[in-house]
TrEMBL record:
Residues 1-23 form the signal peptide. The keyword Secreted does not apply. It is found in: Periplasm. Belongs to the bacterial solute-binding protein 1 family. One of its GO terms (cellular component) is periplasmic space. SUPFAM superfamilies: Periplasmic binding protein-like II (SSF53850). It holds the Pfam family SBP_bac_1. Keywords: Periplasm, Signal. This is Sugar ABC transporter substrate-binding protein. It comes from Salinarimonas soli.
Amino acid sequence: MKTVLAAVSALALLAAAPGPASAQDWSLEKAAAPYKGTQLNVVFLDRPGYRAIIKLLPEFEKKTGIKVNYEIVPYENSREKQVLNFTAKGDLTMALVDLVWIGEFAENGWIVPVETFTKDAAITDPKLNLPGFFPLLLDAFGSWGGKVYGLPFDNYSGLLFYNSCKLKQAGFDKPPATWDELLKTYAPKLTNADKKEYAYALQSLRGETQSADSFMRVLWPFGGSLLDKSFRSNLKSSASQAGLKFRQDLMQYMPPGIVSYDHAEAVNALAQGQVAMITEWSAFYSTLTDPKTSKITDCLAVAPEPAGPAGRLPALGGFSLAVAAQASEKEQKASWLFIQWATSEEIAKPYVEAGGVSGRMKIYEDPQIRATYKFVEPMVASWQKGVPEFRPRFPAWPAISEVVAEWGTKMMLKEVSTEQGADEIGRRMEDVLKKEGYYDGKKPLLQ
């Protein structure tokens, strides 16, 4: 973290360094003039933050004359699609980088460090203000090896969304403070299988949703982890097993077929009144408050994720936007202009109002924003406190994620016990890490 913050400070100085024009003379329109007519290509997801920036895109395109072409891709296919494009020297000019992809993308040379562009005052907004991002987000989503590669764009904190009306009807005037309380006290009273009403839904679709949003979510609060400090499997530890067994116990209060639930299904289950609680990303707040997609707008409430024996350790997720190394020089500079604009303090408020979640600290100091959006207070608290990187950010993660997704699903389906699943994941995971050189000193264990 210290290395990254030092890099951020250096970049901030570069961004503020005197250039051929004064800060008062700089404008997006002038900076973009040489790149008018440039076509940019990027992968977007079908999530609120992307719909928000798409809504604002005409403003950018009108000011700059730069066209942003986007393709909506399911999250589970987004990494593969980009990797294939980069290895084939395709047409993507920007990368959408999940926090667990940053190591892979940076070490393969697919994305360009931000310092390449901040040295050029003609294309760098004097108001860029890198220290204005939450440090946690800039570190986790956009930084690798002491360098900043991408700017936080679609930002998440795990939160407890719940139907306050259902809880009240069951005799509760507040949400569960702990996972144990959710399981033993709340879940039985909020579940009526005959009426197809359930207490909780945990998005668990096989893939990154299973490995990150389901499997890993129950490790940290119980004191467990995927790996120990020597990068050996820690899944057989009592704490890790406690978290995994907890998930198995909680399944009796979830809808049948929960292993096929992606984010959309979990959010919809709450929105339609089928479940009383979900732990989901802050970005889905706009979906749950939209009368077109939600029946519980008047009953929706938000709280921090429940605490476990190890404390309150909510999930952390999100993406950065980075310039693709395969793009031409002209496309790279135009992409940098777009990334600055899309993540800027200037459009943070309209972005949030359109359904996005900005990574900028300043926007959440706005009394109107704090009063209007119930997710802000618990989300900001988690980002300020700092949460564990509950998914390893090294290049080997995608291969390990596939292993975790396969055997995590088998655990939930009771095809294997949590102990058997931990054995399989541990053995296969360590094989991946051995091949990658993590045990022979070829690669550092920690970034």
